[in-house]
Amino acid sequence: MNSRFLILVVGALVMVGCKANKDPLDAFYVEAKQQGQSDVDKLSRVLPFEVEAYSQVDGRSPFVLPKQPEIATQPVKKKTCWQPKYRKKTGALERYSLKRLRLKGVMGADSDITALVQTPKGSVVKVRKGQYMGSNNGQVIDIKSRQITLKETLPDGMGCWQKRYVKLALKH
Predict the structure, then answer these.
(1) pTM of the prediction?
(2) Can you give the pLDDT at residue 35?
(3) What digits encode the pLDDT tens for the residues 136-149?
(4) How far apart are CA 92 and CA 81, in angstroms?
(5) Staple 142 to which of 7, 59, 129, 149, CB 3.0 to 4.6 Å?
(6) Would the pLDDT of 17 be above 70?
(7) In degrees rounded to 5, what are phi and psi of residue 165?
């Protein structure tokens, strides 16, 4: 019974609150039109636009791209320099930089030594002499009991390549 009474009271309050405005629509329209009218300010005088002809005095044309600046100390590009042979990167460890790879151990006999290298994802990969690892075409040239030696090829920025030797060592 209580819930029926509550619904009846809420319904009555809603009906009382929905009193429609019974003023005639024509009177509302006339009143709104009178309130909406206002005087429009006149615009200020427009300044005349003066066209000036372009004449280049000195310097480059603004319609041509500037040349690349050359530094006086920049070495001249060599016409013949060492280039590595192109090869596809197919090794599992070639997608990572050497900073992200960790040497976890070395195992095997004198003639057949392999290194265990951990990737950033946590998996461990066996590496032998001649395999590639790292993002700079690092080829494993030597495996010792506590380190791997790699030969990397890096571009020098002038179209030539340089070789460098990098060691990946076990951490104590």
Answers:
(1) 0.52
(2) 78
(3) 889 999 999 889 99
(4) 30
(5) 149
(6) no
(7) -110, 130
The yes-or-no verdict on residue 126 having pLDDT over 70 is yes
* 23 to 26, 37, 67: CA distances (angstroms): 9, 22, 77
- Report the pLDDT value the prediction gives residue 41, as an integer from 0 to 100: 78
Amino acid identity of residue 33, one-letter, is K
Domain extent listing, the chain? 98-169
- Nearest in space to 143 (alpha carbons), one of 135, 153, 133, 154: 133
For the segment 22-36, what is each residue's pLDDT rounded down to a tens digit? Answer: 667 788 888 888 777
C-alpha Rg value of the chain to the nearest Å: 41
SS3 37: coil
What residues pair up with 153 in beta bridges, in sequence order?
163
Domain 98-169 is in which class?
mainly beta
Copy the structure tokens of residue 59. 């310097």
Quick check: helix, strand or coil at residue 64?
coil
The span from the CA of 56 to the CA of 38, in Å, is: 52
* Cβ neighbours of residue 114 closer than 8 Å, sequence gap 6 or more: 106, 107, 108, 126, 127, 128, 143
Partners of residue 155 on adjacent β-strands: 161
